Amino acid sequence: MTNPDERITAALRHDAPAPRDPVFRLQVLERRERQRFRRRAWGSLAATVAVAVLSALTATAGGEAYTAGSVLLFALVLITVAVVYLPGFERLIRRLSV
Amino acid sequence: MEEGDEALVAAIRDGSERAFNVLVDRHQQAVRTFLRGITSWDDADDMAQETFLAVWTHARSFRGGHVRAWLFSIAWRKAKGAQRSWFRRRRRDSSYHESAVPTREMGAEDRLAVRQALATLPLAQRAAIVLNLGCGLTHAETAEALAAPLGTVKSHILRGRERLRAALGEQS
Asked: Which chain A residue is nearest to residue B12, measuring alpha carbons?
């Protein structure tokens, strides 16, 4: 190979990975699942803390504050369930509809 | 018939696992070659994985154009971000020099010379050279991937190539 550009190209491509590398793809998928799990775990933890704090405040309150706290608590639980389970549910619906 | 890259990104946007797998399989070699050219092997594969994760998470941010250039632009941002980290830079540099040990294979001198000359180039110049000569992108695609003006990229490639040619003992 005499063309200098070709020599440079050959040198740069020499260390290229295989065109098909299932191990790399699996590593990406594994990392994506870990990231997804971490996000859900943090989301659930934050929601649990919020629910616990709100429950404690509601339990000590009386009258209208108790009713408002209960409604807020119910809404928070609904939101948490939606955030945690809705993406998976959406994927399931999409898969069934295809 | 093979699906186009844009159709794959659209499917990924809708959460298609299959499209994501196809896109990773199709472009992993190019993205990893690019990152291996501008950083160490260990960091390169790590950043390549982060690049594809970003594709999954931010597929909605794709505004059309060349998917390959978009992938390289994500990889480039990851590489620049890593360059800013002192610890990562130190690990990369030592790993880079350790891997530059000459072997008796054919063309090993060329590879060593190119690798050492590349290491002396500024990161942007190195990236332009690897994308253009190593990954086969046109000047325009390279400019799109690096989010740099075409003239700047052309100048990076010209200067970088001169340095590499000189390292190979060639006249430009």
From this structure: A91
Q: What is the pTM of this model?
A: 0.74
Scored b (16 or more CB within 10 A) or e, B39-52 reads: bbbebbbbbbbbbb
CB < 8 Å from A in window 65-124 of B: 107, 110-111, 113-115
Round to whole Å and give the CA distance between B48 and B57. Answer: 14
Which residues in chain B are closer than 8 Å to A39, comparing Cβ atoms? Answer: none
Name all contacts of B72-76 with Cβ < 8 Å and 24+ positions apart.
B72/B30, B72/B31, B72/B34, B72/B131, B72/B135, B72/B137, B72/B145, B72/B146, B73/B144, B73/B145, B73/B146, B73/B147, B75/B31, B75/B34, B75/B35, B75/B47, B75/B48, B75/B51, B76/B127, B76/B145, B76/B146, B76/B147
Q: Which candidate from B24, B29, B110 shows the least CB-CB separation from A7?
A: B110
Cβ contact A26:B144 at 8 Å = no
Residue B133, chain A, CB below 8 Å: the answer is yes
Residue A25 sits at the chain B interface (C-beta within 8 Å): yes
Rounded Cα gap, residues B112 and B169, in angstroms: 13
Nearest to B31 by CA among B17, B42, B21, B45: B45
Q: What is the pLDDT of residues B32-62, one digit of tens each?
A: 999 998 988 778 999 999 999 999 999 988 9
Q: Is the ipTM of this complex over 0.85?
A: no
